[in-house]
Amino acid sequence: MLRNHCYKDVLPFSAMVAVECTNVLVNILFKAATLKGMSNYVFNAYSYAVSTLILLPLAFIFSRTGLPPLKLSLLYRIFLLGVLGSVGQICGYRGIEYSSATLASAMSNLTPAFIFILAVIFRMENLALRSSSTQAKIMGTIVSISGALVIVLYEGPKIISTSSQTLSLSHHFPLGSSQTNRVIGGLLLAVENLLFAMWYIVQAQVMKIYPSEIIVVFLYILCGTVISAPLCLIAETDLNAWRLKPDIALVAIVYSGFASSFGTVAHTWGLHLKGPVYISIFRPLSIAIAAAMGVIFLGDALYLGGVVGAVIISVGFYVAIWGIAKDEEEEMSEDCGFGSLEPSSNDKTPLLQRCKVEDLSM
């Protein structure tokens, strides 16, 4: 009985908290490495390559018979995943350079809102305005975007200040003020999450055709490596920047590859054990973790506007998640015969539910 409780409750909880910590630590290490002079483009290219090498054996281990063949139309979609993911990651890490890991963690909770907006625009989501789940997703989207605007446009007084100025962004971007850097960083992070919202829409289509998470993620990472390498080489022409030394940059690159692989495996396992909503509720936890780590390890200052905006985004995120959970309950009721007398179709499943919001950390 105790072992069953640990496996079904304690272990998933610990794993999800660990995933959020590892994801935040990637951003913290990246920020520390860039403050020491590492190029954003070098980090992107190398981290994709490390992730590919780590996931290669996992792809063979978790591959199984009975999967459909890899058709050209499927490979096109996976290549598109690579384009969206690599460009989005470049924008995201550039945004962290201008702002902070805390802001990146807060803005990452915008992805469900962007998915919902895109789904409505492209008519992939049916708007039943009288439905409480639809109302929750609309309200959550509005609240989340409002919180992001607060973070980007309002700084406010310092809540926690640091005595050390050695890691100040003003040394890294001498031509821009703190306010300007935060706005630019916030916009880049918003673009990242918009691109990843598109990524999840395409991913939902790919997973419907080829239902093997590990294989799809490996092929996506492989495409991301192939795409990011020439892009980053063009963007970063200084060959000396590509020479890695045994310092914080090498640690950040290697750790990011392992963290990505660990997060993929943990989320895949947690999805099958507990479901997507359980995993999703841990996402706003990364804001608090990033804020604490940023203050302790990077000497970041904490501003009132960032705290208020992060709280607003988190509220909007949980409201949207509640709407998704409501959709899942209705879908299960239909499958069990408690709703409509007609069998449920996967095509009618709301897009936010099919996009597996538990993987937003990728």
Task: Describe what you observe in this structure.
- By secondary structure, the chain is mainly α.
- It has helices at residues 2-35, 40-62, 72-98, 101-107, 111-121, 132-153, 169-172, 178-209, 213-235, 248-274, 276-280, 285-298, 304-335, 351-354; strands at 158-160, 302-303.
- A two-stranded antiparallel ribbon has the order 1-2.
- The two termini are 34 Å apart.
- The model is unreliable at 164-176, 338-346 and 357-362 (pLDDT under 50).
Short description:
With 362 residues, the protein is an all-alpha fold. Helix content is 73%, strand content 1%.
Task: Indicate the low-confidence ranges by residue numbers.
Answer: 164-176, 338-346, 357-362
Q: Round the mean pLDDT to the nearest integer and report it.
A: 80
The Rg value, from CA coordinates, equals 21 Å
Structural class: mainly alpha
Strand order in the largest sheet: 1-2
Number of helices: 14
Share of helical residues: over 70%
Order of helices and strands: HHHHHHEHHHHHHEHH
Residue share in β-strands: under 5%
Count of spatially separate domains: 1
Q: What's the arrangement of secondary structure elements?
A:
Layout: H1 2-35, H2 40-62, H3 72-98, H4 101-107, H5 111-121, H6 132-153, E1 158-160, H7 169-172, H8 178-209, H9 213-235, H10 248-274, H11 276-280, H12 285-298, E2 302-303, H13 304-335, H14 351-354
Antiparallel strand pairs: 1-2
Helix pairs in contact: 1-4, 1-10, 1-12, 2-9, 2-10, 3-8, 3-9, 4-12, 4-13, 5-6, 5-8, 6-8, 6-13
